Amino acid sequence: MSQPAGERSFPLPSQIATVPGAEGWEEMYPFFSRFQPEDDGRFWFYNSMHFPEVVPAFDGLTSEIPYTAIGANTARLFSFPTTLGIEYRIVNGRVYITANPVTDPAQVERRLVHFQERAGHYYANWQRLYDGWQQRIEALIAEIEAVEVPRLGELDDLEVVTSSRGYASNHLLREEFHRCIDLYSKMWHHHTEFLMLGYGAYVVFFEFCKQAFPEMGDQMVARMVAGIDVTMYRPDDELKKLAALAVDLDLADLFVEGNEPDKVLGALQERGDAGRRWLAALEEAKDPWFNVSVGDGFYHHHLSWADDLTVPFAALPRYVEQVRAGEDLSRPTDRLAAERERIADEYRALLGSEDERAAFDQMLGLCRQVFPYIESHKFYCEHWFSTRFFQKIRAFGQLLADRGVLADAEDVFHLRHVEIEDALADVQLAWASGGTELGARHWRPIVARRKEIVAALAGWSPPPALGPVPESLNDPAVKMLWGITDETVQTWLGDEELDEDTVRGYAASPGVVEAVARVLLNANDIGQIREGEILVCPVTAPSWGPVFGKIAAAVSDIGGTMSHAAIVAREYGLPAVVGTGQATAKIRTGDRVRVDGDRGVVTVLR
Fold it and tell me: Domain PEP-utilising enzyme mobile, which positions (predicted)?
């Protein structure tokens, strides 16, 4: 991102006032995450895609560690020529980021030599290396699942003595907790190992198409890559199997819109052998496919399907009805695949030379090769691993609650991870000495105050960006993922006069539809969606796939052409407009709305 132009600026970080009632919020986060005086001269944008809510103290780790890994892979391992890593800051509980570019032509050239050697090795051996990645990430998941919170009884088990283990169980408290944190860090390094290379392939192909076909829209480029089945859709496929089984076992009458999961489960237990067979199939599907968060894996309170069945059970009634009606529940993958070939053939024919056509085919082939990883890794990393990670931290919280240090297991998430280590040391000492933990009087007031702070910060409306506006926003990945361009910034600044009933964004998935809006600001409320509504939200998560089967269209505040919301909408054949910036502010639940996924326009119909 280049230097500031003129006086155009968003509020400077130093001008952001503390929210009344949230005084002392800074203590929830590490010192290096806070804005510094020199940060006023840089452009930052609010990462509402990954952090749409206030970040509790423990969850600050989910920004710190990912950016540690992303930058290391981009800047230090693969030597991307024009970009280093992403820096982040937290203000009033919200995460702002900025990308660090490489602008010196000589440095770009030096980095390019290394990039071609290192990235070239991965691109040339993609499938073999990807297979190795699959084994490594599954081994990491097995490691986090194997973490055990020690039991601290009156005496250690006799076996600890007879086996001459050499250490008592209180030693394991911090070792196992450290193990959780270390595995989370290693997971994120694995996560970004292939990810940035995948996005790099997208960027090169997008830029080639933009140069060769200036009139081509981003959506058209993306549609040449679409139509591939990936692991992230497997949880939804498992739901469809369960719906078909419910019909086969004559249990369809139990799955009705608005029915609560507990009531359905209770009724199934009363339906004899058929009910037991369906419940057994549910348990089989859960591991691992229900380890998907209703969010994107960055907040402890965005529970997985395994922890809260609301989302899958909200999707089942429609699937059951479709099965009973003999409808095909599969996504239109074949149609999308045929369409992508047609589009690619049409544009290839417009190229003027064999060399250009060969380059086009090579870049498009690489994009299609990397696409399955770009989507599938999310299931293993943000969902399966992260679900297990938060469950283990919650188990440490339960131990602290059982020992009287905390009032409730969930309170552990209002402590930073280094504070949790202190709390565990207190337990280690008390158990060893035969004394009593001293932490209750220390930690409980801190937790109570932080809950007040989080509640106060939740009412703050964060500016979409901070600092001086650059001359141009030229980071292609920022555009593709977050949908942030010069035009976006102009809208944020109010430079573009828009009718109060109109919002503009990216034409992410084609089609035009009119229906009633359902505005969801909290990921945990996704179960409220009803058949045929238009989903309007800050950002969608891949795990929302099942509700894409019942909505008419999707609209999001944040996201670019290759954001997950855009990709999922295209795979389900739904109109979508992403990166609107203000849809959730302008649209209310119950409004009748027209979504034009061809032009990127959303209109409230009065």
Answer: 530-600
Distance set, CA 45 to CA 48, 67, 84, 337, 556 (Å): 9, 15, 17, 35, 17
The closest alpha carbon to 387, from 307, 314, 286, belongs to 307
Bridge partner residues of 513 (DSSP)? 595
> Which tens digits make up the pLDDT trace of 237-296?
999 999 999 999 999 999 988 778 999 999 999 999 999 999 999 999 999 999 998 888
Separation CA 490–CA 505 (nearest Å)? 12
What whole-number distance in Å separates Cα of residue 214 and Cα of residue 208? 10
Which segments of the chain have a pLDDT < 70? 1-7, 227-229, 474-477, 495-498, 542-543
What are the residues whose beta carbons fall under 8 Å from the beta carbon of 446, sequence distance 6 or more? 414, 415
Instruction: Say how many Å lie between the first and final Cα of the chain, rounded.
Output: 40
CA–CA dist 299, 313 (Å, integer): 22
CA distance 522 to 57: 19
- Residue ranges and CATH numbers for the domains of the chain are 231-330 (no CATH), 499-604 (3.50.30.10)
- Structure tokens belonging to residue 212: 């060769």
